[in-house]
Protein 1
Amino acid sequence: MEIYCDNAATTAIDPEVIQAILPYLTSNYGNPSSGHWAGRKVKEAIAAARQTVANLIGASAEEIFFMSGATEANNLALTGAIKANDISHVITSKIEHKAVLQRLALHEKAGDIEISYVKLDDFGNVDLRHLENLLDANPQTLISLMHGNNEIGNITDITAIGELAKRYNAVFHTDTTQTMGKITYNVGESNIDFLVGSAHKFHGPKGVGFLYINKRNKIRPIIVGGGQEKGQRGGTENVAGIVGLAKALEVAYKSRAVVQNHVSVLKRYFISNLDDLTIGGITFNGESRSATKGLGNIVSVAFPCLSSGSLVKQLDILGIAVSGGSACSNLADGGSHVISTIYRNPDKEIVRFSFSKFNTLEEIDYIIKSIIRIYQSDRLIEATQELEQTAL
Ligand code: PMP
């Protein structure tokens, strides 16, 4: 049995998206910059995709820039805005994605900016009063605060932050990678200057994303040459990816209510089953237990007595794919900066379960049974070791 519960890392491509992409991998292979019929066909497809994305999030087409994903979009938004607007101060939080934190750290090291980190409460929520104090003390600021946290699922109140940004004349970038397609946007009526999307997080293809730049903003490009994307991102377009991204977002918006209801049923069922287990000491991280303050599809759990690496490995052996440690890079960078920031305990063991429309209640039953099985066998091993030691 194979169960995929790592949908915050990436998702399966929707069959409708595959159908939409296929012609751009076969017959429609022209370069969109070419002036002939083959080029025109794909140029039109990109323009249609741009218009689709713009319509869905309440933007205009000239505010949408396609790129390789949210990592690139975040990097461009931050560097582009800092350079174009002579920004010398940035407010962010210590639980942002590394694409944001590392880009800002490079600017800090180069002496371009100073960084203030907004205070977080015990669940990892932004302290809005502290944010306002920081804005009051620092004119010409760029705020970079994510919408949905990829590890613990916390949802940030970006409407309130947008209002503060407007009041204090700050530029507002928000990493919306985990919420795009799950929560609706009307950027035309918000005070957001930059937001991002990565297609593979909403059942689209990998290696394609977009950056929304509110037309009142200027940026400086990082990748130049070729003049594509109105000079903001050079390089021949990933045509199939762009078509797939637009289709995936369209499908996500169309089925949003049903899908969000489905994943939250799965989440509630999973949590109540974990609550019923006789294994003591299971806790939930951030707002991942909450139905309103956390994303509907993410549950981050701290299990007692078992390292997350060991639990993830044992679940994998039983056919269940989940994340541990730093949820996206999966232990590659030695633990979770999000968890160690909030709990000041780098050793806290976490496992992230993230659901999608393709998961079922039967799969949750299997996951729960597997957790029980792992604990039983682990207890058995421990008990055996204790027996051996007393016999020596
Ligand atoms: N931001 C967040 C919040 C994410 O979860 C991710 C993906 N882990 C990214 C940015 C980067 O996305 P991508 O790898 O698709 O560029």
Protein 2
Amino acid sequence: MTLIIGNQYEEKGAKAVDEKDGDLTENLQMEGSVDTSKEGTYEIVYKVSDTKGNEATKKRVIIVLAEEIKARTGTDGQPGVIYLTFDDGPSTNITPKILDILKRKNVKATFFILNYGTEGEALVKREVAEGHTVGIHGYSHDYKTIYQSVDAYMNNITKLQDKIKASTGYNATITRFPGGSSNTISRNYCQGIMTRLCREVLNRGYKYFDWNVSSGDAGDVSTSQGVYNSVVKGLSKSKANVVLMHDFSGNTKTLNALESIIDYGIQNGYTFSNITESTPMVTHRPNN
Ligand code: ZN
């Protein structure tokens, strides 16, 4: 983890589990300390042994910085750029905090939003004002409704596009299909619809983006450590990274992982950008 001088180090501890002995967390020994008044790299080592004397150690690295490290902005589509994308928002309990982190870190991101109410409208305005891309996920996310027909889907896009324009004056043209363009759910409602939609969306002047790094935060991944691990594992310097995350209500695991993900990116030489109309599309293949 990274800390700024003068901030408090909060010991998050560790867990130890042994196949035979079970939970050994109580026997854990900790070595090392963190001086948050001095810049530097510190290590806390966690040590434990089982009844047979087998030892295991893990360490946590804590970097204390003089000041906040800000992200560098990357050029469209270049290898090593990271596009953080957040689907299914805005939510009043998660989106504002995500925006706070992005602002502090100087990261522009992309929000693929759904229909919103009054409080949500203020957040969409804030996303626009702070230089993020507001993308269209859809007025509704209900597969059964939106994937009934090409018309139903296009209406679902334009309805939200019109609303965003009325709220903010912003013309949203970047889209993401609920479930992604490779989803296998839509064919239950309309066989072959994704193939047709991928064409139709482009014909009507929109672009669509899937992802090539998944946080898993809408699936199996249930902890912020898990979100962090999935994203970091998926990142690569040899591609433009489109990272799928969610800012739906209550998604604290992603909120809590976000800063570490950004810091990892900064420290490993990645740049950050938001998706724009000139960003080369990153797409899956229809699977319907
Ligand atoms: Zn979604």
Protein 3
Amino acid sequence: MFTSVIIPAAGFGERMGASVSKQFLTLRGKPILIHTVERFQRCNEIAEIVITAQRSAFARIGFLVSEFHLTKVRPLVEGGERRQDSVANALNVVDPRADLIAVHDAVRPFLHKKILLQAIEKAAEYSAAVVAVRAKDTVKIGNDSAFVEKTLDRSSVWIAQTPQIFKREILVHAYMLAKEKNIVATDDSSLVEQIGIQPVLVEGSYDNIKITTPDDLEFAEALLRRFEG
Ligand code: CTP
Ligand code: MG
């Protein structure tokens, strides 16, 4: 089984509001992007790592890749306007031998190996797997004027995270259709759902946060202590 991972890292981190994109902010002196990439570098089931980034960050990332001996990282791919465009660009260069393609946000450095392995296994079995956690809060759908339209049954609500892992041809097909029909989505699973595939949910961990706002950085420092002691 040949599994590739695409790591989209071409965002600007507007909600973080830092002077550099959040994937380059450091936790214990190491950029978040590198913490994330190391999770895959150290996992034997992952054959290659494809990172998409802003062209202006290529030199910086290239330097980090060699400093941290990230030998599975392939030549960098330029990102696009939206996350979806960045992933689409990466899909074009994934090794043709890949059976499975995982997509994982550059800013989720707290992925447990056990969950990654479970997700790979489920994707191999069911063709599409999404790491997610059960909602702790009740989710309301609001209308444009912020009045409640609907309350979802919490027992069936899941919060999607990454990795999301798919059989190669499924992900490629989903992205082709999205381009053709101008479908825009915030995660890869949504695009795969559009081609009639029902991904399996893999119960993940609340640790696997997407570092998004300044509050998350403090929390991330605490999580890192749990991860690395
Ligand atoms: N991403 C990307 N290309 C884009 C936008 C986002 O590769 N055009 C990546 C980000 O770098 C991040 C992941 O997709 O690793 C998840 O996106 P998000 O958390 O929204 O990051 P940003 O877009 O950078 O943040 P913001 O939305 O606050 O600007
Ligand atoms: Mg974004």
Protein 4
Amino acid sequence: MRLFAAVVPPPEQLDELGHVLDGLHRLPGADGLRWASRPGWHLTLAFMGEVDEELLPELRVRLARAAHRTPPFPLRLHGGGHFGRRALWAGVAGDLDTLRILAERSDAAARRAGVAMDEHRRYQAHLTIARVRAEGVDLRPFVDGLGGLEGTRWEVGELALVRSNLPVRGVPGEQPRYETVDTWALEGPAGGSG
Ligand code: 2AM
């Protein structure tokens, strides 16, 4: 099964993002983007790809440990950006150090459980909201629109293991379906994220 570890913002914060996106959907070029549907909105911590089911028990133990060691921390949705000409994302602000540590711990948990992880790339916190469908869409106006995104702060209290069910090939507009496999409360001591 295809798995990743993630942080999922609460409904109020997703509503705030939704309001900003309502404006972006009206911009020229919006039809050239494939907009991620709200039930799938998340901040990826560590992408694992195909994971052998046999590894799941050990992966759960290790992710539980990662969550247990990491304290809850504040985040808010903030602005946005793009990856090349491919993807448009909403950004976050707040305790990005602890977010990065949680991402590193999730990556290490998967490796130690025997998951073949990609090489480390610098962690860039983002919530993908759209992917480019038609070549040549200028993403700048969309990033400018996201400049107005200043979400309400929330306390990240949970690490989620999410399963991604890929869409059937060739079905236009189909999206991956995300299913939360398990969640663990962040329980580390305050100031103990390092
Ligand atoms: P993205 O948001 O930048 O697209 C589920 O596919 C999640 O894992 C997505 O949020 C995706 O990030 C992330 N991810 C990271 N590396 C990936 C990869 N090599 N293939 C697919 N998804 C990946």
